[in-house]
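Supplementary Methods, section 5.1.

A reviewer requested that the exact input to the structure prediction be made available. We therefore reproduce it here, unchanged from the version used in the analyses.
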Amino acid sequence: MGGILWIILVGFVAGIIARLLTPGPNNPQGFLLTTVLGIVGAFVATAIGQAIGHYGPNQGAGFITATIGAVLVLFVWNRFTARRSM
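The structure derived from this sequence is encoded token-by-token as follows.
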């Protein structure tokens, strides 16, 4: 249970950092969406890290890898919404 809470906390911070790092329009999509995308990025980074053996079964991603995961998820989200708005 503590592992999931850690991933959520790290994802929250990673989402905010990822929003600051990614270029492009900073649409008023809201604080909640940024946070959710950061948490998803942290879960993605954790899953990939566990799959390649970098993290143990009860370990979550650290701040750097969670931020990288959040940037990746935010990039995919921006590409998806850009294609949808055309």
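The helical segments are 2-21, 31-51, 63-84. These observations are discussed further in the main text.
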